[in-house]
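Data availability (excerpt). The following record was deposited with the supplementary files.
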Amino acid sequence: MNRVDWQLWRKFWAIARPYWLSTERRGALTLLILLIVLSISVSGLNITISYVGRLFQNALVEKKPDDYNKSLATV
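Predicted structure:
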């Protein structure tokens, strides 16, 4: 079930190879690195938003308006 379909990879590489080995490869690598950096940044931002939301939710559930206001002021 966890087999690698080598025939599929060969077909993929046959299509992708001319592009990745062309004169445009520097731009392609730059865009790929940018895509990876932006994806990691978005994940980090989602984690931060999750923690902030947790602070608000906990303050509301525990009925602590002072904690809620303090969390609101720090955001």
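Summary of structural features: The mean pLDDT is 88.
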